[in-house]
Structures are given as C-alpha cells and as structure tokens.
C-alpha cells in the first residue's frame, strides 16, 4: 500500500492584508485570534478556502506609511461561511449570498509574533528591492488581499523582518 494516500497535506504559507486602523497586528496580539471576515474577492476567497489549520501567514499592514509585513499569524480554523454576508445591517452584507449556498467564506487566524517596532515594518519597498523575492505574488500582483506565498519566500521575509 502506498504510504502517501493518507499523508497530511504539506503546510502552506500565505500573506493577508489588513489596514492597521481596521485590525492591526497589535489587535490580533491583544485578542489572540480573530475571524478574517469581509473578503469580497473571488481569488482571495479561494485562497482562504485552501487554507488548513497550521498554515502560516505573513501579516501585512496595507494603507499604512509604509505598507509592509508586521508579523506572523497562523490559521486556527479552516474556511466557513462568512455570516456577515447574510446580515442586512452589516457593512459586509451581500444580497446575492445565500446561506444554503454561501458565496463568501472566512477563516480564523491566531497571533504568533510581531516585529519589535511595527512602526518600521518590512516595507513593500524592501520586499520589492530583494531579488530573491522578485517572483512573490505581492511583488507581481500587489492588490490581492489574501495571497499564497512559497515556503522559500516566507522564510526569506521572516529573516529580513527579524521574525
């Protein structure tokens, strides 16, 4: 019998963006974990649906000066329907989303670590300047809020960020 039939999937790596004024790495550190709700892009949703418990995440502050990686999180609950899509009073309500056939999903992430001084993240400029990160999705397709990251890129970013 082939030993790979029931082998666990290899850990995957991701980058998730949040504006620091919406939900910062400090908020995640304080809370311990959170649901990652409100994603309304199909590719980002698909990426979240591919996440498994234990996958590691580069936590990225977008719309910051400068934008950049500020810490590490870990997936602690796999994709489940984003119930805010069904709440007419919530800003993430989507009239076309159906509880019997959900369109939008979220995952839960937990705090792992942060850069000592998050006011000085590993900036997007620094990431783009590193030739070893030239193929990173963040460099090539910067706008997506939930992106896959190769293990070698994840390790390189952690090293550059001092994480």
Write the SSE topology:
Layout: E1 13-18, H1 25-31, E2 33-35, H2 42-50, E3 56-61, E4 68-81, E5 105-114, E6 122-123, H3 124-129, H4 137-140, E7 146-149, H5 151-161
Parallel strand pairs: 1-3
Antiparallel strand pairs: 1-7, 2-5, 3-4, 4-5, 4-6
Overview of this structure, please?
This protein has 163 residues and is an alpha+beta fold. It starts with 12 loop residues before the first strand and ends with a helix. A hairpin with a 6-residue loop joins strand 3 (56-61) and strand 4 (68-81). It contains 5 helices and 7 strands. The chain has a single domain (13-157), classed as ph1033 like domains (ph1033 like fold), CATH 3.10.590. The chain is globular, with a radius of gyration of 16 Å. The protein has helices at residues 25-31, 42-50, 124-129, 137-140, 151-161; strands spanning 13-18, 33-35, 56-61, 68-81, 105-114, 122-123, 146-149. Strands 1, 2, 3, 4, 5, 6 and 7 form a 7-stranded mixed beta sheet that branches.
